[in-house]
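Record pair follows.
FIRST:
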Amino acid sequence: MNIQSIPLRTLSGEATTLGELAAGNAVLVVNVASRCGLTPQYSGLVALNRRYPGLTVVGVPCNQFMGQEPGSAGEIQEFCSTTYGVDFPLLEKTDVNGDSRHPLYAELTRTPDADGEAGDVQWNFEKFLLDPEGNVVARFRPRTEPESPEVVAAVEKHLP
């Protein structure tokens, strides 16, 4: 199955796919949480999404890491828009690891990071970059800031 056609649900419950959300753009998929020490990375994600018209950031709320995303869909949406001005798409709360891992993350986690390691998502704010054709071209671990030189270079390289 093409990663762009994997069925997804938006935070508001609407059926969608990455292909529909990104329509020919590069995509940065990030598992997010509102009560994490890395939550301020939302600011960098918003900045990237606004800076590059050919990029679509997609946030995937996940509560698998110490329960750091416990809110309802409405609470998550309100927190993201009010606190960080998030204007990129958010998906429904999703498992990224384990037996109930979403099919999107079953595909994404096959991609190795810069050290050659694939497998489970380590923590909130792990980032996966897809080119406009839906190929996973880079993986950045949680502590890599969205506006770091390596993320920016990878994004710029894969813009349509």
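SECOND:
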Amino acid sequence: MDRVSLLSTILLLYGLLYINDAYSENTFAQPSNTTTPAPNTTTTHVTSNTTTLAPNTTTTHVTSNTTTLAPNTTTTHITSNTTTLAPNTTTTLAPNTTTTHSVTTTKTASTTTPTPTLEPKPSPPETGNYTVKIKNEFCIEALMGLELELTNSTKTQQYFNIVPSQINSNGTCEKSKANLNLTFANSYINFVFAQDDNSYYLDNVTVYFNLTRSESWYGNATNQKLLKTENGYSVKCKNTPKIQLGDTMNLVMTNVKLQVFNFKDNSFGKETTCKYDHNFGLMIAGIVIVVIVVLGVIIYFIWHKRKSSGYQRI
């Protein structure tokens, strides 16, 4: 073989080897970036985020957040928040639960007690029902209207009626003594009842009435023995005498029906009428008329006898 043919053959073999090498490089070349997925992991596109994925975790699209996921946790779309989820945490909503937004308003109660209003003239007071119970058994039951007659520093007389709806009542009961206490507007009226072998009665009354810081009244009346009634009976009294509690205060009781001690079935006993309701005026008038008649008869007989004696002398 001549030199020209040998050289041609060598160049041809060299070209074939070059083509073969180039083909092998294109077929088996690896890309410059290598990603090794974690086992059993599904990875979805994450934009501008750094996400560390734990095994067996599914991450859904998260925007502008850095989220660290605990194992076996599914995170749903969260915007502009950083949330750390506790592993294997389940939140259960109670069925048929309604949550209502409430607004709480705090009111500060006024500690100022309204000033009682005094009237220039007396008026019939409202009748209230005041009771004291011991072990659900009546010890005192009093139906009555109450009015205070007050004389102030200028010697002006004014009146104050007790309003039953504004009264707090309480009391105590012992074997032979009972107490009824009525409180109102920083003031109080206290009744003390006593009992002996055959009867009971209103024995003491104490009143404190506060009008203003600079003007108030206090009075006490003892050993009254008012509304005296047989034990086991109730007493009814339309008109009672004024209870004088000092020089500047009197207590008026009207339309009274009262019983203390010895209740049966929590009911009033047989009713008696107080002596103050007896019409002594009519009795006095009747007595006066009888006396006049008797005197007239006596004068007539004396005059008739003298007349008869004069005829005999003639």
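COMMENT: Confidence is low (pLDDT under 50) at residues 26-111.
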